[in-house]
Specification:
By secondary structure, the chain is α+β, with helices and mostly antiparallel strands. The protein is built from nine helices and six strands; from the N terminus they run H-H-H-H-H-H-H-H-H-E-E-E-E-E-E. The chain has a six-stranded antiparallel sheet with strand order 1-6-2-3-4-5.
Length: 344
């Protein structure tokens, strides 16, 4: 016969545990369903974060500019050294050829001396250290050997210098790549934030910036341009001609600029060569720590690490390439932490 056993009933404790777990799951689901979605940052919050990222990008940009300038300088120096080495090697070959001709002439007469035999089979550097060898050479031969020895030493030094600069160039290129990546990362992060805004919010931000720029332009007092030096005035006027050109990191014109790219380009139009980066431009002239003493055309340096530069435009306004997403324009000098002016 089949056994008809009743199924075993769950214990009271087990029922209680299962009931409690189910209740907790229901409560969690209810809380998740009723939880308010995370609030989207406001336009002003996004703008503040984006501005901070743009400032960080500009800090990296000036370091990028410095590394790029160093790379270009090293490349020129290495090229010069390599040209000198090539010419020096030619001169050395000519000196050796001349000694070889002298030896050949002695050989034909059967009077080749032991010193020239030694020269033809080894390096002449040790010859002149041995009096016995020098005694066997004519004055002309001694002079030729000295020239060969000096040229060899010079070429050795130049090759060592070139090798050191090539190592420096390699590390500079690595640094350049890191800074470029850092700048691009900050700009991408800023763009990601901007993409969270609606078209209306973006338009509102652009309108606010345009109003601020027009207001600054209206306050510019060009009446004291004449008090600036002729070259400062010419540089400022060159910068004015670029109003509206976009900011692009690492750019020096004329399609686009970064902050120090604009100032260095403008002064070049006035016939004055100034350094490429804002930090170097800070040391390119006489520092002026009082805003009241600034003249139109003076450079104005901002931030503690001196990573931004523009032109003083009079009446508390500056002309500069502000940051990514903007154009060359006028702004209040008080929009950034003023450090000092520089009169070129």
């Amino acid at each position: 016969m089949a056994s008809h056993r009743r199924p075993k009933q769950p214990s009271r404790a087990r029922v209680t545990v299962l009931t409690t777990a189910a209740a907790a799951a229901v409560a969690i689901s209810s809380q998740a369903a009723n939880a308010a979605p995370s609030e989207k940052p406001s336009k002003d919050e996004v703008k503040a974060k984006v501005d901070a990222l743009y400032e960080q990008a500009e800090q990296a940009t000036e370091k990028f500019n410095g590394a790029k300038e160093k790379q270009e300088k090293l490349q020129k120096e290495i090229s010069t050294i390599q040209d000198n080495v090539a010419r020096g090697q030619e001169e050395l070959n000519e000196l050796r050829d001349a000694m070889g001709l002298a030896a050949a002439a002695q050989y034909r007469t059967g009077s080749i001396d032991s010193s020239l035999q030694l020269f033809l089979s080894s390096n002449p550097d040790d010859y002149l250290d041995k009096a016995s060898t020098a005694d066997q050479l004519s004055a002309q031969q001694v002079d030729s050997l000295k020239k060969i020895q000096e040229k060899q030493r010079e070429l050795s030094q130049q090759r060592a210098e070139a090798a050191d600069k090539l190592k420096d160039l390699a590390s500079t290129r690595t640094e350049l790549g890191k800074k470029k990546k850092e700048v691009q990362g900050k700009l991408a992060e800023a763009q990601k934030l901007l993409n969270t805004l609606t078209a209306a919010e973006k338009a509102a931000m652009a309108a606010e910036e345009a109003r601020a720029s027009r207001s600054a332009a209206d306050r510019v007092d060009l009446g004291n341009v004449g008090s600036a030096s002729g070259r400062a005035q010419a540089a400022f006027q060159a910068a004015q001609s670029q109003i509206g050109k976009p900011y692009v990191y690492g750019a020096t014109g004329t399609a686009s600029y970064d902050c120090s790219g604009l100032t260095s380009w403008a002064y070049a139009q006035a016939g004055v060569s100034i350094p490429r980066t804002s930090q170097a431009q800070a040391n390119a002239g006489t520092r002026i720590y009082s805003q009241s003493q600034l003249k139109v055309g003076d450079l104005v340096i901002f931030y503690g690490d001196l990573h931004h530069v523009g032109f003083y435009a009079g009446n508390g306004q500056i002309l500069h390439a502000p940051r990514s997403g903007t154009v060359v324009r006028y702004e209040s000098i008080n929009n950034m932490p003023f450090q000092f002016g520089v009169r070129i």
